[in-house]
């Protein structure tokens, strides 16, 4: 689909400088711009590229005044970065605006769905599934029995959503996500063998949640594993049974959260963090990457380390960590000197 500079300026509330009829059908970096693409200039470090870019349209600040002749049409806006982000969002909406049911796919007779459904080929909708309006389900997706999904939800290829899962409005679920698999529940006997503990709860995903590719969220043993509204989960995260993640918390890739842990609101958790089970993490907590958490964390703490300690305490200790070989060498020399004098 092609757009003209005039059309894009209308979307961004910008001013065209150059050819209002210039057409584009793709996005590009400014240094890699080609004819038919649109780019943006927000960082002054990239200013030199605007004079050599072959992009047909470039979004710039209203304050930008070229010092050389340009071959690209300009769209002047208040904030080029925000404007380009808005354009990316609009582009995604257009690109993903699919409707219809592709064959082959399976829809149970008891399943129901709202307006503008897109169901990609080789997808499965189980018994009593309920889908809202504007749900887009891409190919090779499994939706189990009694799953409820709200409005304006995007589910990318290969996602697996097990039975009884509840998903709210405006959620994005990327490829390879598994929601509602059994929690890791096994009971050992006297011989050291394990019996499986049935996992009969479910998973609840509230509104405006993003779940990255390959992330897994286990169903509760009893009750619900809950991801509160506004949560953002990166790729390849493991969330165990009966965990609760509070509103607007963001968690980076490869983090693992053990069973029955409660995480508060507005937390920021770095990559490769390990969180033990049955603990409570307060609101607005910041956890640095590769930390290991085995205790309760109070509101507003910033922590780092494995096992995690206070962030400032860790930084002070790290100064000494770096010098341990030198300290050890000095101690050896002092001990030798004392021994020689003795």
Tell me what the structure shows.
The protein has four helices and 40 strands. The N and C termini lie far apart (88 Å). The chain has two domains: 3-95, Udp-n-acetylmuramoylalanyl-d-glutamate--2,6- Diaminopimelate Ligase, Chain: A, domain 1 (3-Layer(aba) Sandwich), CATH 3.40.1390; 101-314, 3 Solenoid (UDP N-Acetylglucosamine Acyltransferase, domain 1). Strand 39 (302-305) and strand 40 form a beta hairpin. 33% of the residues are buried. The protein is an alpha/beta fold and 342 residues long.
CATH H-level superfamily of the largest domain = Hexapeptide repeat proteins
Radius of gyration: 27 Å
**How confident is the prediction overall: mean pLDDT?**
94
Strand order of the largest sheet: 8-11-14-17-20-25-28-31-34-37-39-40
Question: Percent of residues in beta strands?
Answer: 25-35%
Total separate domains: 2
How far is it from the N-terminal to the C-terminal residue, by CA?
88 Å
Number of helices: 4
Let me know the number of strands: 40
- As a percent range, the share of helical residues equals 10-25%
Please give the CATH architecture of the largest domain.
3 Solenoid
- Shape category: flat
Q: Which stretches of 5+ consecutive residues score pLDDT under 50? A: none
CATH domain fold name of the largest domain: UDP N-Acetylglucosamine Acyltransferase, domain 1
Structural class, judged by helices and strands? alpha/beta
Major beta sheet, specifics?
12 strands, mixed
Seen as an oligomer or otherwise, the chain set is single chain
CATH top-level class of the largest domain = Mainly Beta
Subunit structure: Homotrimer.
Family: Belongs to the transferase hexapeptide repeat family. LpxD subfamily.
Function: Catalyzes the N-acylation of UDP-3-O-acylglucosamine using 3-hydroxyacyl-ACP as the acyl donor. Is involved in the biosynthesis of lipid A, a phosphorylated glycolipid that anchors the lipopolysaccharide to the outer membrane of the cell.
EC number: 2.3.1.191
């Amino acid at each position: 689909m092609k757009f003209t500079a005039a059309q894009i300026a209308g979307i961004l509330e910008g001013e065209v400088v150059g050819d209002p009829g210039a057409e584009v059908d793709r996005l590009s970096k400014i240094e890699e711009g080609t004819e038919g693409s649109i780019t943006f200039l927000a960082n002054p470090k990239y200013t030199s590229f605007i004079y050599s870019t072959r992009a047909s349209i470039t979004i710039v600040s209203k304050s930008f005044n070229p010092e050389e002749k340009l071959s690209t049409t300009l769209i002047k806006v208040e904030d080029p970065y925000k404007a380009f982000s808005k354009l990316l969002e609009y582009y995604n909406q257009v690109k993903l605006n699919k409707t219809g049911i592709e064959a082959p796919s399976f829809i149970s007779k008891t399943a129901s769905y709202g307006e503008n459904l897109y169901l990609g080929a080789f997808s499965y909708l189980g018994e009593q599934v309920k889908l809202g309006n504007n749900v887009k389900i891409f190919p090779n997706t499994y939706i189990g029995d009694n799953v409820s999904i709200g409005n304006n939800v995007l589910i990318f290829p290969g996602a697996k959503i097990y039975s009884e899962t509840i998903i709210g409005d405006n959620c994005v679920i990327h490829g390879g996500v598994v929601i509602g698999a059994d929690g890791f529940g096994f009971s050992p006997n006297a011989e050291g063998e394990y019996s499986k503990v049935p996992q009969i709860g479910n998973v609840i995903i509230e509104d405006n949640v993003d779940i990255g590719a390959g992330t897994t969220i286990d169903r509760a043993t009893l009750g619900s594993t809950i991801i509160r509204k506004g949560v953002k989960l990166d790729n390849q995260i493991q969330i165990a049974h009966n965990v609760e993640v509070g509103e607007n918390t963001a968690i980076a890739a490869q983090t693992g959260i053990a069973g029955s842990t409660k995480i508060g609101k507005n937390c920021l958790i770095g990559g490769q963090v390990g969180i033990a089970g049955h603990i409570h993490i307060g609101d607005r907590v910041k956890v640095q990457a590769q930390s290991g958490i085995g205790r309760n964390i109070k509101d507003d703490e910033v922590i780092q380390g494995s096992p995690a300690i206070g962030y400032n305490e860790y930084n002070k200790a790290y100064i000494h960590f770096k010098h341990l070989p030198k300290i050890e060498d000095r101690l050896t020399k002092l001990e030798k000197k004392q021994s020689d004098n003795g």
